Amino acid sequence: MGLLRSIVRKDLAMDLGTANTLVYVAGDGIVLNEPTCIEIDHEGTPVCFGENAYERLGKTPDGQRVIRPLKHGVINDFEAATALVRNFIKKAKGKKGILPPRVLISVPSKMTQLEKRSVLEAARAADIKDPYLIEETMAAAIGAGLEVFETHPRMVVDIGGGTTEVAVIERGGFVESDSIRIAGDEMDEAIKRFMKQTLGIHIGSRSAERIKCELGTAVSDVSWDESISTVTGKDLNTGLPKIISISAADLRPALLPILDEIAYFIRDFIGILPERVRDIIKTDGFLLTGGGTLLKGIDRYLAQETGMPVCHAPQPLLTVAKGAGLAIENLKIYRGVFSN
User: Fold this and answer.
1) Where does ATP bind (predicted)?
2) 18 labelled as ligand-binding?
3) Based on CB atoms within 10 Å of each CB, which residue in 15, 137, 186, 211 is the most buried?
4) 263: annotated binding-site residue?
């Protein structure tokens, strides 16, 4: 019966992130992981999507541009977002299934009803008949194997590209949740400012993200402090290309103000929890996930700054997509935790 169901319908889950989008196909797992980018021409017609579009950042001919249709987890270009969702769903689904798939999309916890409606309308415009929504922190908890229906509260911190989400989950719902629009994108911008103000060169977003992935650290450690990478930018004095070398230790001061804001946000969130829940969370600590937590040492930094144990998800970039996938695969169990 399960085999027949999988032949007739292949349900999907989508982690529609500011920086990256992942698609999970029921029975197959995560089959797509690409940048949330689309290249369009002067009339707004899509040229290419995902990885292909990202590779053309800063290289497009006149009249074409690469855009990211989401900002801080929210759609800011409806037509581009619709085209991107349609392309990714088609690419992930292939020719599997006879009936249209049910699709579950993860969204930020503090998204307004208007913003949620925008996601649903984009999904329907992309030929998804009955889209479901699930909060990213709930999906992350499921993906990490936490028991979201038990009476023991669990805390999740999800640092993505556009937002940092934090929530305490108990009995299939939220005790409290909150988010700030400070995350991986702000780290990239901080690196660009550091390069400009300290080293006198201008670099693009792709270069900043690459440096963050190669050299970004939250704490000092002999195993990575002396790691060095080269970067090419435009010399602000001469206007000519310039190649410089930079170490992980050199770069860290650029990232610490962003990390401090995230740590303050988490500490402030802990303070508003009911006393019973707060005491449990302070003892148990929290799950740390999301692509922004790939920064080396960020778990140690947040443990130090919050005074709490931190459990870093083993595959933080995949946790939300995996959890949403498990939820759509087990719809009868998890339908109650969806947000629509």
Assistant:
1) 18-20, 161-163, 209-212
2) yes
3) 15
4) no
